[in-house]
Amino acid sequence: xxTLTNLLxxxxxxxxxxxxxxxxxxxxxxxxxEQCFAxxxxxxxxxxxxxxxxxxxxxxxxxxxxxxxxxxxxPLSGYVWEQDGMLVGNLxxxxxxxxxxxxxxxxxxxxxxxxxxxxxxxxxxxxxxxHARQRxxxxxxxxxxxxxxxxxxxxRSLGFTERARRTTWLSNGQPQRAQAALAPDxxxxxxxxxxxxxxxxxxxxxxxxxxxxxxxxSFKAAALQPGIRGGLYRxxxxxxxxxxxxxxxxxxLGVLAWxxxxxxxxxxxxxxxxxxxxxxxxxxxxxxxxxLPARRPLSLDYPAGQAAEAIQQAGFHIHQTLIxxxxxxxxxxx
Length: 334
Hints:
By secondary structure, the protein is α+β, with helices and mostly antiparallel strands.
């Protein structure tokens, strides 16, 4: 606590750390984020930047959506760093709830290249932690690409601890170009998911998709459940799903779910028993690629390192691996 306080008190006189003002800062934040993440921006990232710019040009919509800042992934709250008459640093704060507890996600930490190595990112992050303590949130989370070693070192020095690593996989090209690799595995029988498979699927999904690190994804277990509840959820939310189960004899190995998405790629959600993970992943992913339309890429978010060879053999490549880190703010009641 003392370290953070001292850090915030020793800011350079040439720079100003202040709260984000979306009415005047949003365009500058969009420019900064685009500049700093140009090498890693994918189609969804470019769409996110465009959403910011569109919002900045519409004061009425901006005022309306700002009232829902606690339910938006857009940068409507946070801190910026001004220097030499320019906005050169940014940090976005996104509030969210997990099991009734309030959390904050740090995102869009960006510093203009000419102003790096001056402690701006450190001061922005320290300010975010001070903000979290003042509001009594449970914890602060963030994610960072695993190759970004300077940022990882910075966050560790401020008390963040690694909690998980997750890889986003994307399908390769047209599946018909790799029919040999995608041929059915004779050891495994793949069928449509049965209602009675849901109990095991739900348990495996909870292990692979813990809410602390997947709340921001379009993963919704309600969309996958069988029966009237699941059907009603899919109808009301206009979600199309398909699901398959993998079997060895009479033993359920795993379940794969596919759902449509408004993002660049449609989503796959893989749930398997731990002992059969590689076998189930290979068979289910290959089956999905044979069954689904080739016009849409497929995206699989999965714990890093798990079933990696099987996923690659099914025609997927690594898009990115993110390290999820957190720091506890408020002690949990026992």
